[in-house]
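Q: Okay, next protein. This is 4-alpha-glucanotransferase from Xylanibacter ruminicola. I've checked the sequence twice, so it should be correct. Can you predict the 3D structure?
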Amino acid sequence: MSYLRLEKAVMTNLQESLVREYLRTNRSGAYSSSTLVDCNTRKYHGLLVVPVPELDDENHVLLSSLDCTVIQHGAEFNLGLHKYQGNNFSPNGHKYIQEFDATTVPTTTYRVGGVILKKEVIFQHYEDRILIRYTLVDAHSATTLRFRPFLAFRSVRQFTHENATASREYSAVDNGIKTCMYAGYPDLYMQFSKKNEFIFQPDWYRGVEYPKEQERGYASNEDLYVPGYFEMPIKKGESIIFSGSTSAIKPSAMKKLFDDEVADRVPRDNFYHCLVTAAHQFHRKEKNHDRYLLAGYPWFKCRARDTFIALPGLTLAIGEVDYFEKVMMTAERDLRAFMEEKPLSGKIYEMEQPDVPLWAVWAMQQYAKEVGRDKCFEMYGKLLHKIVKYILDGKHPNLRLDDNGLLYSNGRDKAVTWMNSTANGRPVVPRSGYIVEFNALWYNALKFCASMASEKGDVKGAEMIEKLAAKVKESFVETFVNEYGYLLDYVDGTMMDWSVRPNMIFAVALDYSPLNQQQMKSVVDICTRELLTPKGLRSLSPKSGGYNPIYVGPQAQRDYAYHQGTAWPWLGGFYMEACLKLYKRSRLSFIERQLVGYEDEMDYHAIGTISELFDGNPPFHGRGAMSFAMNVAEILRTLKLMEKYSYQK
């Protein structure tokens, strides 16, 4: 039985199928996404969604969807599905679905009377091209297929509406047409592997509605332009391939291209392989060969903190050291430029966040554990030295090294940590001053760099760093450890945040901890009792004031819930690392049970990947972005850690 297979009962029940989404990416920033029944429920959904750098730094929906109609004996059976205003669904093509299988290539099988039609969809790697193969598995009489494309030509953050500006012009190309609705956009090529007839029948389909946007308190409807339809006969056993792209393709090349792309896919036949495929979806290769990691889909860009946190899990944990090095090469260039107060040339956002250099050190530390310290020193020794010196010299605009050895950052007016939600222009959680994970990362960075310096014969440098680390350790305990056995979240002068939050787990999980064994166990115990869920650690304990665990409603409502009780799988990764560090093999079975909570997500929400966050209360619904890099990364890293501890005596 297939690992990611959903039967007719699920697919034809819209309450079940509309909450399940798919995601395909080309590893260069473009993607294809919708629900499993191809009914778009977000403005971010689309069959071909691509970056258009000539316009802006956003993705743009060119081809919203492609409706296929089966015609026999003059009777038409439209397999498409759209939601219109007034809770009207049309043309209800989902009722013909027999099954959906996403194990290798997402495949939908339709049955219309005696007709069995199989649809397989794939996104070509590194090209803005979606490929769909339709195979007539069975038919007892002459069959014709009709394809009607729905065009948007808009940013993912906007909507399109019927207007007189949109161009209706089109040109014939090999087995298809090319068209462009607005100036500045690339041409959209729609071609088939088989000769067909294009019937020009321009019209606007009005009032298409996106319920996910309604739920989020946004505008939720638009009009889509249909230039006409393609029509062709198909015989039993025959396959026809559709290509939607920003460039032309020879129809004769489509079959080999489709087969080659299928052969390049990792079958999603188990939990691990699903996560590997999800990891690859975050890759972004630019034309200048820069390599990035997107923070998530569908709306996130490349962010510095996310890059360094996710990098080890998305690369090293699955044996892809080379991609780690390629991403680090791009990220190092921008990190150095920031530290040298030069313009950034890349596409990584939020490099100015004060904990970014600390997470960069952590990422390189994971690299050292994978390839050895000698190789790490050879690759990144100069960068490590530069980061530590940069912080010691007080060069960062919002990271002050105080006499007690701790790092101070001002987050009262602008969010500076990963808990970055804002309301009315101010942080919802104004974490400021001595921030617990900043200083845990700082101690870890100092100890790691001191050990590297010592191994390379820099005795004087190592002693200097060790001396500072000892001061940090003493100050950390004095500042953050409280009489209740957990750590204060941040301390700013006389202001102490007593909220029980997950950020203290880093002080245990990191290789070098400023805490003693008893203090570490106490932190883990409290995280287990008050923060642990099947989907990761809560961002706030239910016992703390302001607990708000359900991430729903309009933007303002969601902003106040974002870090006030919602659960985050990536934090669960560090929690599980802390458990293994303290209890070794005795906690393996416990962690295996924790991972079941993540595996349950493989055939729900976005198929084969992990949502951005989850409600902090049962039933722990997935919320936010459909796929989040740090979550996938930390689950993969946990699996690698489990493998390591399994072999330890």
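A: Here is a summary of the prediction. The radius of gyration is 26 Å. The mean pLDDT is 95.
Q: Noted. On to the next one.
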